[in-house]
Design a protein that fits this description.
homotetramer; mainly alpha; two-stranded antiparallel sheet; about 5% strand; globular
C-alpha cells in the first residue's frame, strides 16, 4: 500500500491521483528548468558597449539570432515532448525523478552551448559541443520514456508514446551524433542536418506512429 | 475520443477538465517565461565599478530606469492579456502550444531590447529594435487568439476576446510598426507614440468591446 | 454574472472557486518573481578573477554577505506577507492584478539595490537607494491591501489583514523613509534602524493585532 | 478554529486540504528557487572571448564541468529530499515557512560556491566554502524536519521521514563539516569524501530505515 509521502523506499510507485501535489511538483520543477533555460538564451545576445559600435555589433548578431531562434525552438520542442510524455503518465517513482533530473541537466546546458554556437558557429568544436548537448538530451529522454513504460508507469492504453516518442528521440539523438563528425569537415552541413531533422522529424514520427497503430 | 496524454496526433484537442495538469502546465510554463523575463530586466541596471563613479553612474540611470519601468509595464500588460485570454479557453491542441511558444520567444527577447533602449535611447536603431520586438509580440499574440477562436478552443459564450483582444492587439502591433519609420526621424516622437497607445489603449479597447456588445 | 475568462470589463470581480486556474496564476506569477529575485541575489557575490586575489576578494565579502542575508530575509518576509494576504482573498479583479504588478516591480528591483548596498554600504547614496526600494515595496503593498478590503475581495471574517498587515506595512515603509535622511548623516545608523524594525516588527504587529481583536 | 488566510497568529497551523493554494505556494516557491539555482549553474561555464582561445578555454573546462555535474546532482538530491519531505506533511505553520526560507538561502548560494569550486578547485578556501555551503543546507534541512515532526505537521503514520531523513541529513552535514579541515591538508581527499557519501548515502540511509522499521 503506497501512501503519498510514505515513499522511503526507492521502489515505491505513487499514482498521480493519490499524490497530486507530489506529481505536479515534478512537472512544475521541470517546467521551471525549461522556462529558465529558454529565457536565459536572451543573455547570449550582446549589448554593444558604446554607441560607436552600435551598428557594427548589432549587424553581426545574425549568428546570435540564429542560435537564439534555433535553441528556443529546440527547448520548445523538448518541452512539448516532455508535456506530452508526462500527460501519458499516471504514476511515478524515485528512479523516474532521477532520470528526469539527468535529462534536465542536459536541457539546462543549452544556454551555454547556444552561446558558444552563436559566437563560434564556424568552428567545428562549437558545433560539436552543441550537437553533443542535443544528443545527450535526446538520448536521456529516450531512456526516461523506456524506463517509464517498462515499469508500467503510463496510463492504460497510452501506447503512442512507446511506439512513437521513444523511436523519434533515438532518431533525433542519432542525427545529432552523426552531425558531430560531419562538423569536422563542414560546420554548415552539420547545422543543415539539424534543421532538416527538425523540419521533417515531426511528420516522419507521426507517420511511424500511424503505421504502428 | 481524446484522452489526456493520448495526443500523438497533432489534431487532437484536449479539454481543460480532462487534462487538468496538462492545461495548467501550459500556463505555468508561460508564467515562468513572463516572470523570468520581467525579473531579468533588473540586470539592465548598472552597478558602478568603483565609488568614484557612484554618483555619475547612478545619475545617468534615468534612461535605464525609464526602460525598466516601460518594459515592466509592457511585459505586465502582456501577462495580464495572456491571463485573460487563457481564462477564456477551455481546450488546447498541439498547434496552440507552438503558437504560444512563438509568442513567448518575442516576450523573452524584451530584456535584450530593453537593455539596448536603456543604453541607446537616442539612437534610431535601438528604438527600432525595441519597436520591432513589441510589434512581433503583439502580432504573434493576435495570431494565437485568432487561431484559438477559429478552432473553437474558447469556452461557449466567451466572445469578448474575439471581438476585443484580437483587434486591440492588431492596433498595438500596428502602432509599434508605425513607430519604426518615425524613429528614423525622431526617436523621442516614436517613444511618445508608445506611451500614448499604452495610456489610451485600455480605454479605447474597452469602448470598442462595449460598442460591439 | 461573472464567468471565468469573460472579464473584458475592468470592473469584473472573479471568485477563486469559479476561476481556479486564473486565481492561482496570479500567485504563481508572483511566486515566480519572488523566487527569481531572491535567487538572483547570489549573482551579487563576486568570484575572484584569479587565484592570487582569492583570499583578499573573499575576505572582503562580509559586506556582500550581509547584503545577501539581509535581502534574502527581506524578500522572504515580503513573500510570507504576500502569501498570508492572498490566503485571505477570495476574489480578484483587473485592478488588483495591476496593483500587484506595481508592487512586484519594486520587489524585482531588490537584486540591484542589494548589489549596490553590498558594494557601497558606506556611501549614503547606496543606503538611500536601498531604503527607497524597500519603502516603495512596503507602501505599494499597503495600497494593494487597502484596495482589496475596500473592494470586498477578502473572504468573510478575514479582518486580521486589514487591522494588522495594512498598518504594519505603513510602519515598515515609514521606517525605511525615515532612514533615508538618517543615511546622509550616518549610514550605519540607517542600517541599524532596518535591523531593529525587522527584529521587533513581527512582535509589535502581533501585539497590535491582539489588542485590536 | 483555523481558517485559511486567517493566520495572523504565528501559532496557527493550517491543513493542506483547508488551504490548498497556500500549501502549494510553499512548494511552488521552493521549486522555483531550486529550479533557478540549478539552471543558474550553467552561467559558471565560460564562453571564450575570442576564437584563438577557443580550444584552450574549452580544454580547461573539465573542472567547471565537474562542478556543474556535482552541483546539479547535489541540488537535484536536495530537491528530491524536499519533495519527499513535503509529501509527508499535511500541515504547515508560519515558523515552518521561515525555516524553509532559511534552508533555501543555502540552496540559492550553491551557484556561487560551485563557480568558486569550478575555478579554484585546488585552493583549500574554495573547497571549504563549498563544503560549508552544503553543510549549512543539510543541517538547516534537518532542523526543518525535526521541527515539523515535533509540531505534529506530518501526516499520521508517516514515520519514515523522522526515522530516516533526519539522521541521513545529519550524516550528510557531518561529512561536509569533516571535509573542511581535510581540505586544508588535501583538497582532493575532501572532494573524494563528498563523492563517497553521495554514492553510498542513499543505500546506507535506506538500510537504516529498514532496520528501524
Amino acid at each position: 500500500m503506497a501512501e503519498p509521502g510514505g515513499h522511503a523506499d526507492d521502489a515505491a510507485v505513487l499514482h498521480r491521483d493519490e499524490a497530486g501535489i507530489e506529481f505536479s511538483r515534478i512537472v512544475a520543477f521541470s517546467d521551471g528548468v525549461f522556462a529558465i533555460a529558454i529565457t536565459l538564451l536572451v543573455l547570449t545576445l550582446q549589448i554593444p558597449s558604446d554607441a560607436a559600435d552600435l551598428d557594427s555589433v548589432l549587424g553581426k548578431q545574425h549568428d546570435d539570432l540564429f542560435a537564439y531562434a534555433l535553441s528556443f525552438a529546440v527547448i520548445g520542442k523538448f518541452w512539448v515532448s516532455h508535456h506530452r510524455f508526462y500527460g501519458a503518465l499516471d504514476r511515478f517513482d524515485n528512479r523516474l525523478m532521477w532520470l528526469n533530473l539527468l535529462y534536465l541537466a542536459w536541457v539546462a546546458l543549452v544556454p551555454f552551448s547556444s552561446d558558444l554556437l552563436g559566437n563560434y558557429g564556424e568552428e567545428p568544436v562549437a558545433v560539436i559541443i552543441y550537437a553533443a548537448n542535443m544528443a545527450g538530451a535526446s538520448l536521456t529522454f529516450s531512456i526516461q520514456i523506456a524506463y517509464a513504460y517498462r515499469r508500467g508507469l503510463a496510463r492504460d492504453g497510452a501506447t503512442e508514446q512507446r511506439r512513437y516518442a521513444g523511436p523519434a528521440n533515438y532518431i533525433l539523438g542519432g542525427v545529432f551524433l552523426l552531425s558531430m563528425p560531419v562538423a569536422l569537415v563542414n560546420t554548415f552541413a552539420a547545422q543543415a542536418m539539424w534543421l532538416l531533422v527538425f523540419a521533417t522529424g515531426r511528420r516522419a514520427a507521426d507517420r511511424l506512429a500511424r503505421i504502428g497503430a
